[in-house]
């Protein structure tokens, strides 16, 4: 390895904003287009994807360590709040939700999860609402799972339990 010190070590869980939680599986020296580059090799199990990120680009793309306990508590508390649904066109809201998910910010992802959650006794969501909800809740669950050393399914159940407990006070009972 040359001059730049690694911010992440092999085995570390990291968050890559556009892809969620991955694991550093290797630090690699490569020559690309005649330049020596140091790369993080990240593995995203859920997507069965490997990504190589140059050391000098990691911070610029927003790659970070897992959130702090404080941030996790704040995100979980966000789930219990009142859903905020703007009265703008769905296409505009969908773009905003996607931007929040891709920001990699755990609290923003929790906001999307909360805002798009529907209790079982509520009207069905549209397909695109459901897709964005699943993307957000999955991203949140993967980071929660990595932090609590559990699996995504258990983390998702915990998130849904919080949402189901908080939701009744915000929704009219469907007749």
Automatic annotation (TrEMBL):
Enumerate the Gene Ontology biological process terms: rRNA transcription
Q: Which residues form the CarD-like/TRCF RNAP-interacting domain?
A: 7-117
Q: Which Pfam families match?
A: CarD_C, CarD_TRCF_RID
Q: What is this protein called?
A: CarD family transcriptional regulator
To which species is this protein native? Sphingorhabdus rigui
